[in-house]
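Researcher: Let's try something more involved. This one mixes different molecule types, so please make sure each is placed in the same coordinate frame as the others.
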Amino acid sequence: MRFKIYRYNPETDKKPYMQDFVLDNISDDMMLRDALLLIKAEDETFTFRHSCGEGVCGSDAVNINGTNGLACKSRLSELKEPIEVRPVPSMPVIRDLVVDMEQFYHHYRAIKPYLTVKDPVPEVEFLQTPQQREKLDGLYECILCGCCTTACPSFWWNPDKFRGPAALLQSYRFLADSRDQATSERLQELDGPYRMFRCHSIMNCVNVCPKGLNPTEAIHSIKKLMVKDLV
Amino acid sequence: MSIENLERRKFDTLVIGAGGGGLRAALQLAEADTHVAVVSKVFPTRSHTVAAQGGMNAALANVLPDNWHWHMYDTIKGSDYLGDQDAIEYMCRSAAHLVYELEHQGVPFSRMDSGKIYQRPFGGQSQNFGGEQAARTCAAADRTGHAILHTLYQQNIRAKTHFFDEYFAIDLIKDKDGFILGALVLEIETGEPLLIEAKTTLLATGGAGQLFRTNTNAHINTGDGLAMSLRAGIPLQDMEFFQFHPTGIAGKGMLITEGARGEGGYLVNKDGERFMERYAPHAKDLASRDVVSRAIAIEVREGRGCGPNADHVMLKLDHLGRDVLYKRLPGICDLCKTFMHIDPAEESIPVFPTAHYTMGGIPTNRYGQVVVPVDQGEESIPGLYAVGECACVSVHGANRLGGNSLLDIVVFGRAAGNDIKKYLKENRHHRQIDEESVEQALVHLKRWDESDGNGSETVHGLRAELQKAMEDYCSVFRTEEILQQGLEKVLDLEKRMKNVRITDHSKVFNTARIEAMELENLVDLAVATVKSALERKESRGAHSRMDYPDRDDVSWLKHSLYYKEGHRMDYKPVTLKPISVDTFPPKPRVY
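Model: All components are placed in one shared frame. Result:
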C-alpha cells in the first residue's frame, strides 16, 4: 500500500516535503494509525500524536486524502491510494503531523466550558429528567480532537476571533444543560460579528466529526436562544 | 544542557499526571489557593481516564437497596482479602458524596425517570453481604470516564490550575534526608529540560498496561510514575496482581465494558453454552473479573473456544434489543462497527481476557502519602504522594471490582489534596534543592544523546520482545517453570537495555526519545511484575498459580514489596482492621 506523508523537521528542513512510503502486509482490518506506527518503526524520526487507538482520546486528528479524521478510526482499505496524510490545516506545524493546538484550546477555555450554578447545591444530585438529559446527547461526547474547527473556512479566515465549531458546540452543551445558570452570560460572550456569527453553515464540521456530532446544529440552537433572549 | 543554565520553576505542589486522580487533587489544591502545577505528557483530556466506560461505584440506592457497608464487603471479597480494610471503608463511605460532587460539577450522568442518577449492575456487586445482585455503578451511558475527565479538566480551568501540557517527567528529585523536592521534566515541544521545585509532589501517572502485547490500554500507559519511584529507591507493592479484563475484543484488545454484561449480556462458548453458570452459579456473568477471565481461558484451553482457531468466546448482546443497546451502550456499538464491522444488535462480539489494570503500585496509605517499611512499622516519604492506578492503597488487593477505579481516583485524589494542604501548612518553605540529585536526573536524560555505533538494539524491537515475553510468561495462568523462564527473559531484556540507541537526536517534539524513556520504565516494571509473581506461591485474585491452586492465608495474606536494587523482595501485613466497623475475616470466595 502506498503512502505520501507530510514531513517537516524545523531543525533540519528548510521547508516541508511529501515523503513516499510503501507498506506490505496491510490486512483488511488495519487502520491508518497502524500504518503510521509501521512507518514509525521503520523511521523513528517520523512524528505524530496518538494514544488510545479507539477514538476517545482525540490525539490523532490528521488530514487524510484532503479530509480531516482520526487516524485510529480510518480504515486503510476504505482509502484511495496513495494515501496522503498531512497535518490538520490552518494550524502552525511543529513537526511532521504534529500541530500547535493552542489557539483551538484558547477558544475552548474562552467559552467557559464548565457548569455554572449560582444557587446553593442540594445535598444529593440535581434532579434531571431523562428528557432534559437527552438534550446533552450529541454534545458532551466531543473529544476535542480539532477535526471540525480546523476544517472550517470561517476559522481559517478568522482564527483569532471566531470561536470555531468545537468551542461553540461546547458552549451549547452548557446552554442546553438544565442545571446550568449562566445562560445570558454565555449568550453575551458569543454576541458580536465574529465569535459565533462567522459561522456560515458550510457544515464541513459535521462532515468530518469522528464522533458523528453536529456543531452546525448546535450553533443554530444558540442563535435561536439569542433571539429568545432578545424578545 | 548543563545544570547551571537549567530552567527552574517553583510551586507548592507538583502533580504529575492529568487523569482523574491528578485533576481531582489539583482541583482540591487550586481551590484552596495553593500554587499547583500539573505536568502531563499529553493534553489533559487525552489521559486514559477518558477511556473508562462502565461507571463509578457508589451505594446511592437509586435503583436497588444499597449501603456503603455492602459495597465495602464486596470490595474486600473482590480483592480476595488482600485489600486494606481501612482504606476500603474510607473509599466506600466517601463514594456517594464524591458522586454527588461530580454531578454538581457537571458530569452528565444518565438519568432514571425519577430524575436521579442511573445505576447499573456490575461484576462482584451484592446486596446484604453476598445476597442478591446490586446495582451500584453510576453511569454516563458507556462514556463515564470521558464525562468525568472532561468535567474535572473543565473545573480546573475554572479554578485556574497551572498546566504544563506535553511535558514528560524524567525523575524525582530527592535530598539526603529523604525529602522529595519536585521533579526534572522535559518540555516535549522544545526538548528542553525544566526543573520543577515543589514542596510536595503527587504522582498520578496511571498504570502500565503497555507491559502486555494485547491490552485495553492507551499507548501512554507505560507506568512512568511507578518506575520513577523504583529509581528513587521506593519499593512497588503487589505488582504480581495484574487484571485481565474478561472482555477485550479478541486479538485487538479494545475494551468492551463490563456494563455490557451488567445490562444483561452474557458469554457463550462454541456450543452456545452459557458457560459462566458452571463457574459461578450465583453471580454467573457478573462474577469478579478474575473469575470470569479464568473461566474464558479454561473454555478456550479445553477446546470450547469459538472461531476458526477456537481462540475466543462470544459476548452475546443482541437479545437486549437495538433500543436498549444504542441508549445504554452507544460507545460499544460504535466501537464494534468501526473496528469489527459488527452490529452488536445483530451479532455477538468475539472476546478474550485482555491486560487491563495494574492493581499493584506505589505503596500509600489512605491519605495518599507514599509509605515505606522502616524497622517494624512504616514511615511516609516526606513530600511525596501517589494516587490512582499508579498507587497501591490498597483498595483493590488481588483483584479490582469494575466501577471501583473511577471511584478510587476521585476519592484518593481529593484525600491527597487535603493532606497536602496540611503538609504545606507545616512545611512553609522550599527546602534547599539537592544538586546531585538533579545532576543524576540530567545524566539519565543525556544517556539518550549517545549515538556510538555499538547500539545493537532498537526501542521498537525491544518493546515488542518485552510485550511478547510478558504475554507468554506472565499471563492469566502461571507456574513456577513458566515464571522462571519469564524472569530470565526480562532480566536479559533489562541487560540489553544498555545497548539500545535512538537515531533521532533532534530536540523538537522528539517522540523517539520519549518512547525510549518509556521503554526503560516498562522494563523495570516487567522485572517487578514477574519477580513478584514468581515469589508468591499461592493463587489469589488475579494471580493464578497452577502449581499452587489454593489461596494460602497462613503464609501469603501479606503485601509484596519489590525493590529495584538487587531485585529484592520484602513483605508487609494486610490491614485487616477497618476504621469504624468490624473486620471482614477472610473466607472462601464463591460467586
